[in-house]
Amino acid sequence: MSTPALKIYNTLTRTKEEFRPIDPAHVRMYVCGPTVYDYAHIGNARPLIVFDVLFRLLRHLYGVEHVTYVRNITDVDDKINARAAERGISIRELTDETNKVFQQDVKALGCLEPTVQPRATEHIGQMITIIERLIASGHAYAADGHVLFDVPSMQNYGRLSRRSLDEMLAGARVDVAPYKRGDMDFVLWKPSKENEPGWDSPWGRGRPGWHIECSAMSWAHLGETFDIHGGGIDLVFPHHENEIAQSCCAFGREVMANYWMHNGFLQVEGEKMSKSLGNFVTIHELLHTEKFGGRKWPGEVLRLAMLRTHYRQPIDWTVKALEEAETSLRRWSEFISAGAASGDSGNFLHAFEGALADDLNTPLAMKLLHSVYDPSQLDKALNLVGIDVRRYARWIENEKSKSVDASSIGALISARLTARALKNWAESDRIRDELAAMGIVLKDNKDGTTTWEVKR
Ligand code: AMP
Ligand code: ZN
């Protein structure tokens, strides 16, 4: 049966369109990546998962070697500078450390590595080239050590976000600065103080603005125009509008990317996630601590919970939704490991791929998984969206063995307390040694209780 045609909702046209890559044999996609100064939160996980599903689908439709997916790492930024200064380390040390955790987090969420993960600081040369071109073509000007993009010089500015000038002014929270010609003009390059990270440039020692980074990295790895550009809905304005302005004006092109895709926002238990509300939750905490719902969550559950809502809809991140996702996952995992078909699944895989190809209709695809009666088809479908039931089963086994350990340690400790109460020192010492061999160190407290910790 033929593979269904891929349709994508394009923010640029506000319609669902059939996807046609520039090169029919190779798809090029860019997604704005993290600013690596702190742990990524569960809102950040949404574009990571959504665009990973798209990457997997594209590889399935066009062939593994025929898709280039670029997700950048923003490793220079004022928040990074401030955090590094606070800790007395270099920005490279801070961003290396944060990036390492980030890579572990996305792997746990079941995401493939993008084809390229370029770092902003390794593309300063390309940024300078683009800025020089913009100045030469009258779209940018240098003033006071800064270089600014001259917004009124671009006719189509605002095409992606479709905002009026007043709305854009409000949305951009523009800084009024004496070196700016127009209120909307945005920074391409800014001067660095002695103690701030900086690079030599024709405009003095300085550092790039945020938007120019993505124009430079997408150009370096995908060319002047490419197929798909993605990110969260909050990036439409001003970030993506400004990327378009820079790239189109520097390269004399009508478009930067043909399809612009944006995921909706994630909130937690009905409220906007924020540090001040105390409901801010990182991917790392969900995976490794008991902060959310009093337990750890395996990456597969987080991923499935994300995919049960369509990527353009807002999503409410709740403990209940995670529990529901886990119930399905457990059922599928057991069904696959039992390995016996229980009925006729018809054209299940075709319908499943059709749902994904229809602008990533993952909620429909996940629903279809409940009416498949063939474990090998179920396994294939889950693989296509990056859900690995075997890894999930291993996680469960591992957690179980840890809790068995904890209860057997508890039993040994109380047996030792009994032995001590009976003044049976030989037995008490024997149990202490047995625990020591397991790597457990005992501490007898003044109040008669015994606590334990794992030897380091
Ligand atoms: P940032 O590090 O804030 O630039 O965000 C990295 C990515 O996560 C961007 O694509 C954002 O649009 C996206 N993002 C940030 N917060 C949320 C959220 N609460 N829900 C969904 N996506 C988000
Ligand atoms: Zn970007």
Explain what the structure shows.
By secondary structure, the protein is α/β, with parallel strands linked by helices. It folds into three domains: 257 residues, Rossmann fold (3-Layer(aba) Sandwich); 132 residues, no CATH class; 51 residues. Helices cover 45% and strands 14% of the residues. It is built from 15 helices and 14 strands. The strands form five sheets. A four-stranded parallel sheet has the order 4-3-9-10, sandwiched between helices. A hairpin with a 5-residue loop joins strand 13 and strand 14. Helix 10 packs across helix 13 and helix 11 runs antiparallel to helix 12. The protein is globular. The mean pLDDT is 94. Bound molecules: adenosine monophosphate and zinc ion. The site of zinc ion has 4 residues, from helix 7.
Span between termini:
57 Å
Strand order of the largest sheet: 4-3-9-10
- Which CATH class of the largest domain? Alpha Beta
The domain tally reads 3
CATH level-3 fold name of the largest domain: Rossmann fold
Q: What is the CATH-assigned architecture of the largest domain?
A: 3-Layer(aba) Sandwich
H-E string: EEEHEHHHEEHEEHEHEEHHEHHHHHHEE
As a whole number of angstroms, the C-alpha radius of gyration is 27 Å
Index terms:
456 residues; alpha/beta; Rossmann fold; 3 domains; 4-stranded parallel sheet; 4-stranded antiparallel sheet; 14 strands; 45% helix; binds adenosine monophosphate; binds zinc ion
